[in-house]
Design brief:
Number of strands of chain A: 10
Strand content of chain C: under 5%
Number of helices of chain C: 13
Largest sheet of chain C: 2 strands, antiparallel
Order of helices and strands of chain A: EEEHEEHEHHHHHEHEHEEHH
CATH superfamily of chain A: P-loop containing nucleotide triphosphate hydrolases
CATH topology of chain A: Rossmann fold
Structural class of chain A: alpha/beta
Radius of gyration of chain A: 17 Å
Number of domains of chain A: 1
Radius of gyration of chain C: 19 Å
Largest sheet of chain A: 6 strands, mixed
Chains: A alpha/beta (240), B mainly alpha (297), C mainly alpha (314)
Strand order of the largest sheet of chain C: 1-2
Strand content of chain A: 25-35%
Shape of chain A: globular
Number of helices of chain A: 11
Number of strands of chain C: 2
Helix content of chain A: 25-40%
Order of helices and strands of chain C: HHHHHEHHHHEHHHH
Structural class of chain C: mainly alpha
CATH class of chain A: Alpha Beta
Oligomer: heterotrimer
Amino acid sequence: MGKHLLELKGVDVRYGDVQAVWDLSMHVDEGTIVALLGANGAGKTTLLKTISGIIRPNNGEILFSGKSLVKLKPQDVVGIGISHVPEGRRLFTRLSVLENLELGAYPRKVRSSFGESLDRAFKLFPILKERSHQKAGLLSGGEQQMLAIARAIMARPALLMLDEPSLGLSPLFVKAMFELIRTLNDQKVTILLVEQNIHQALKIAHTGFVLKTGKIVMSGRGNELLTNPEIQKAYMGTLG
Amino acid sequence: MLDILSFGLVSQLLINGILFGTMYGIAAIGLSLIYGTMRIIFLAQGTIIIFLAYICYWFFKLLGIDPYLSILLVVPVSLLLGMGFYQGLFREAAALEDKNISLLIAVGLMFLVENLMATIWTPNPRSIMTTYTAYGVSTLGLRISFTRLMGFIMAVLSTIGVNLFLNKTLVGKAVRAASEDMEAAALVGISPHAVNGVAFAIGIGLAGTAGIALATTYSFDPYFGFVFSLKAMIALALGGMGSVTGAFLGGILLGVLESLGSFAISGGWADAISYGVFLIVLMFKPEGLFVRSVKKA
Amino acid sequence: MKDKRTLIVTIVITAALSCVPFVINTETSYFVYFLFLSFTYITITQGWNLVAGYTGQISLGQHAFFGLGAYTTAMNWIYDITKTGYYFDPVTMLLSGIVPAIVAIAIGIPLLSKLRGDYFALGTLGLGEIIRVYFIKGGTYTGGPIGLLIPSKVYTSMRPYYWTSLFLALFATAVVYFLTRSRIGLALTAIREDETAAAANGINILKYKIFAFSVGAFLSGLGGSLTAYYLFHISPESVLLLKWTLYPILMCVIGGSGTITGPIIGAVFMTAVFSIANIYLPEMHPILSGLLIILVMKFMPKGLVGLKEKIRPR
């Protein structure tokens, strides 16, 4: 497809005595959608947090366009082009929709193109334009998820990482969500997607990885994995 | 007692209470900023206010600088002091989960500064007397002293200033965001150390303003700070942790309660009642009396 | 094996310390006074250690309990409530511990059930102040701002003070030692580490917190009682000072809070520092203690005991 935008080599992550990620290697090709799947506690969220700098790996290397991320703090990771929409959205509920978006464009590099980024966000999420002066905490669940993603793309990331974006959303919103992800990908944003909703995720993903207790137990092309009966086993825990 | 209560008297008490309360208010705003971003209870706030009051006093006594002119000196010094406190004392402690450590550092700072002032500048009470100290405005049968009015104006302007900063500037919004969710703020590119430093700087900057107001209106001594901190905290509890205006109003409310209270009952008991109110508010409505809570995302 | 060794060491040291008055002239020796002071501080510090070090509740109102203990002792002597008549009366001292403990329970129930962490610390601060105001305004019973005077004619020798303080220090340390090794101690540590998890495991958080809080108050009260006997004149100025909270905190933290020996090391060390400072730089006490707290919290949050301990990565 393209070169490796993101590369992980031999990454270990430990919380005190518990190891969450074991010697993990994977890569994300530029311009693709990569799905990271697995049951709860498999280490998917930990992995995203390690990439975005919230957690420091104990071992291994993480390269973004060849540059090492391992020593960077989260606020710097945004600056080099990776946006992370965390589990639970983590919006600034006491601030307005517009203020959340303004803060999304906080990194120095992207401030000058704020107007452009805002237009793009409003085009993708018209509902946010309507509600731009409302406090973020007053939006519905689906709208909040939209805002979280919109805020993340205000930083004009090359790589967008989404942690369970469909969690808790109505089926209508879920459908819209995955269409949105595809649209973003068409706009040249590489996507790393953590999802419980295997079916929808693999439908749009170019590549998929299945994680179990911190190790990759299956990987392959999206459409192949979708039809692979083993995937259920990997998920339920009888494989690997 | 009721027979000596007159409209004039009550109004006078109210006015005095409001004017004094604004000092509690801006001290409380400072505490709120520091607590909001770093979850640190800066117990030394009152003592630092006293320290800055002394600075204002010495500028006047030794260099003849008019207190209101010294705002131009004291406030920048306070801002730098605040930044210095963060970088020098609280930077690492702010990141720790155990908030007791930063609490103890604040306590240590309070003890240190309080007794340093007492040793170097003696425990004798000080106050600033200028040509206009005795000036007052008399309207509607009430007397408002000039310096107290000035103190009130300074407090109001500071509050408006801080509000503008928090709501209209990007850095201010970053401070608000970080107060709510530091990790999410980092994920959009906001550096925790940067906002913490700003919050501390402003917190102490406000202390500087309060210090000048205090120095020009009342007499003070080094040990006054601790009680002042407590009162500021009561004001904050009354007004709510999340809101600048709330903290300000909380201060005014406390000032009024104290003013009326210490007239009705003797001074000491009025204090005890303030502390009692404090405990009750802490226990039953910690988010303050003026704040509506917003649903979490 | 380790426990046996500790026991022997403790007995030996205690025995040695008990013999000091036979070897040194207690009336003129500064060293004896220094030990007396240290032992008193150990007693109070262990109290704070239990509440804050082991249970994780930072209480900034210990001086209130200290003062209550002192006042109980003084009032008992003056008004002869227990009618026991003699001076270093265990009943009085016990009472001086129990009164603050009861107050702690009464206050603790509302306070601890509603307030967590920082808010609790603030609450205890407010509490300390309320009690202080109460004593200042207390009228004839408590002597108001001037305080109470215990007749000093009864002072015969430093010896009973010394031995009593040694006993109290030992008692306080033993209390903390046995509590923390019991199931209670496990519960307290669990609460300190993770309250929610502890609650989920069926631990009655409130009950244990109140227990620790009241034991801490009891020990502080004992310290207050001893001090009242020594000072003869107690007033809000002398016994209801924030310093009686701050110094124990400092000592506990410097020595290592949450340990048995921490308060001992801290108390002895700090008393030594203060004594030396008193000679060369009088009046610098509080400045020094303020500075020390800052330095210790910044660079050695685990205290002297914890210097060897490695910090677990999060």
